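Lab notebook, bench 4. Still working through the backlog of constructs that have no structural model yet. Next entry is a single chain of 401 residues. Request: give me the structure tokens for it.
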Amino acid sequence: MTLAKKFCLFALTFLSTAALAQAQTGRITGTVVDTAGSQPIAGARVTVVGTSLATSTRDDGTFVISNVPVGAHQVRIQRIGYPAVVRSVTVTEGEAATLQVAMAAQAVQLSTVVAVGYGTQSRRDVTGAISTVATDALEKAPVATVDQMLQGTSAGVQVTTASSEPGGAISIRIRGSSSITGNSEPLYVIDGFPIENDIEGSSVGNGGRDRTTPPNPLVTLNPSDIESISILKDASSTAIYGARGANGVVIITTKQGRGTKPTFSLDTYAGTQRLAKKYDLLNSEQYMDYANAYGAGSSTPFTPFPDSVKAAILASGINTDWQDQIFRTAPVRNLQLSVRGATNLSSPTRYALSFGKFDQEGIVLGSGLRRTSGRLNLEQSFGGRFNVGANVTASQARSKS
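Model written out:
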């Protein structure tokens, strides 16, 4: 056999083997969706086990793997936030095997993260004195203002009220007072915006009988909108915020959008408030008898109540208890409606919209608090590399008179 014939025979054998190998392949196609809302899952990794054949799902959740050898195969589907799914499939020559895969989101246990100034740190990596207020347990408590959430929840933080009326001024001390004549109030940072409490600027006049106190700087903030509260107690707050953080910093972060579909929440409650205990006072007859007995045993001149005056007062029915004239049973009402979620795209938009209405009557006539608040938090992600966000809030708080 000549060399030319041998070459032609080898070429024919090679081409027939390649054609046979190419003919003994098929395709695997399918769709990957979320079990919660049947939404397509984009970016899931689909791999044929034991081979180098792999692909990723498109935005509509579909995928195609070509040139898969004929026979039984195992297909693994993986996506961050979902447990891996393995499915068996049989590929026939020249045909497309179809898979319909539903993946359930996996609950991830996150470690505690603390907001510190311009970033976040893992809880175990924080070396400074930082206290985190657990707001989950306080969501069921009927609190009117944020300062009520801080009372008794953090070691070394003392919260007092300069006025006991609803929405009255507050004073917070973190590890005691740091100044004799200056302001010892901490710095409040709400979503990155600093707010100061000028309680030291209150004026006292007329022998202390007339006092003007500044309003509570946190009264316009709806407690239901708060995601977390962190309190910086030591010198690290000064290093981050400068001299304004010398008395400590209270960092408040509001709720942001999350998830892949809208989540609606309605929170409402109503109740009443009343004086826990009244003084046991003398009535008019007892008061006159006591005054006459006290005057009789006193060395100072005293004119007792004549019997005629005493009889006239008793006959007129004058027997006023001043506590009944200024105290009342006061109602309190709260309504909170919110929606949070995010679009299920490669560049998601996270949103959190809330509306709140709070109305509290004080137990003393002429006191009370009425607050109407609205908040919109938006965050847009561009390809996972850039995030642009905006926090917009409108709130009105009025003290009733």
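Notes after review: Confidence is low (pLDDT under 50) at residues 14-21, 202-212. The two ends are 117 Å apart (CA to CA). Flag for follow-up if needed.
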